[in-house]
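About this split. The held-out portion is used to measure sequence recovery: a designer receives only the C-alpha cells and must propose an amino acid at every position. Recovery is the fraction of positions where the proposal matches the reference. Here is one held-out target exactly as it appears in the evaluation file.
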C-alpha cells in the first residue's frame, strides 16, 4: 500500500473530489480524517471507507475559521501522532458566466477571498505539525481558469491563479522542513457536476447563456481537449495518492495538469 501508516487530513471531504480522494487514500492504507461543513456528508464518506475495511473519522470544521481548523488539526495530531498528508478540497458556489461589465465587485471578490483564506488557514494548521516531524505533503486544488483568458471566469480565474501561486510559495517556505506542496489542476469533472452539486450550480449560468444544458456544455468542453474527454474522479484521486506517496518524493512547488490536454504546459 502506497500510504500505509500515514495520517491524512482532508478539508472538504464531503464533496465529490474530497470524498473520492479520501476513499483512495484509505484504500492505500492511510488513516483518514474527514473535515467539512456538513457532518452527514462526511459520515457517508466515512461509512464507505469503513465498509471497505479502511479507517476514517469525521468532524464538522469551518475551513474559513483559523480557530476551528487549528483545534481540529491539533486534536488529529495528538490522537494520531502526527499529520502526514493534507488536502484542501473545499468548494463554494460562486458566479461564473457573467461578463465583466455585469460582474459585481462582491461576486468577483468572493471566490478569491474564500479559496485563498481557506488554503492559507488549512496549510498553516498542518504545517506546524509536519515541521515538527520533518516531513509532510500538502495538496491544493485549482482549475484551468488559472491560465484561461476569456469572458465570464474573472473571479474563478484569479482565485485559481492565487491558489497556484500560494502553493508555489508554500513549497518555498516549507521545503527546508521536509514538506512538499503540490497543486492539482483538473478540468471540469462530469461526475462532480451531477445532481444538486455546487459545481453544477456554478456551471449552469454559463450553459444557459450559451443556450445548452450543463451536460451539453461539458460535452463541448471534452471535445476541446487533446484527449477528447474530461478527467474523472478516479483520475484526480489516484493522482493525489501518487503525489502524497514516496514515489513522488522529488515533486514539489508545481502544478499537476489534469486537464486532458485542454491546457498544455
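Reference sequence for scoring:
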Amino acid at each position: 500500500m502506497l500510504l500505509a501508516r500515514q495520517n491524512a487530513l482532508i478539508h472538504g471531504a464531503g464533496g465529490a473530489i474530497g470524498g473520492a480522494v479520501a476513499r483512495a487514500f484509505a484504500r492505500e492504507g492511510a488513516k483518514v480524517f474527514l473535515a467539512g461543513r456538513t457532518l452527514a456528508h462526511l459520515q457517508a464518506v466515512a461509512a464507505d471507507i469503513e465498509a471497505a475495511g479502511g479507517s476514517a473519522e469525521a468532524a464538522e470544521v469551518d475551513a474559513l475559521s483559523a480557530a476551528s481548523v487549528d483545534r481540529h488539526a491539533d486534536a488529529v495530531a495528538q490522537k494520531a501522532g502526527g499529520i502526514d498528508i493534507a488536502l484542501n478540497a473545499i468548494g463554494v458556489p460562486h458566479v461564473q458566466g457573467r461578463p465583466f461589465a455585469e460582474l459585481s465587485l462582491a461576486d468577483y471578490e468572493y471566490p478569491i477571498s474564500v479559496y485563498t483564506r481557506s488554503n492559507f488557514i488549512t496549510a498553516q494548521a498542518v504545517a506546524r505539525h509536519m515541521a515538527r516531524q520533518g516531513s509532510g505533503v500538502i495538496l491544493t486544488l485549482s482549475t484551468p481558469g488559472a491560465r484561461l483568458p476569456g469572458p465570464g471566469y474573472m473571479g474563478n480565474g484569479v482565485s485559481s491563479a492565487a491558489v497556484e501561486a500560494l502553493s508555489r510559495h508554500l513549497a518555498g517556505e516549507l521545503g527546508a522542513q521536509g514538506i512538499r506542496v503540490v497543486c492539482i489542476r483538473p478540468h471540469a469533472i462530469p461526475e462532480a457536476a451531477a445532481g444538486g452539486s455546487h459545481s453544477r450550480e456554478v456551471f449552469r449560468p454559463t450553459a444557459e447563456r450559451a443556450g445548452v444544458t450543463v451536460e451539453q456544455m461539458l460535452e463541448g468542453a471534452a471535445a476541446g481537449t487533446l484527449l477528447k474527454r474530461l478527467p474523472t474522479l478516479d483520475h484526480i484521486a489516484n493522482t493525489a495518492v501518487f503525489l502524497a506517496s514516496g514515489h513522488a518524493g522529488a515533486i514539489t512547488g508545481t502544478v499537476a495538469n489534469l486537464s486532458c490536454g485542454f491546457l498544455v504546459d
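Annotator remark: The radius of gyration is 18 Å.
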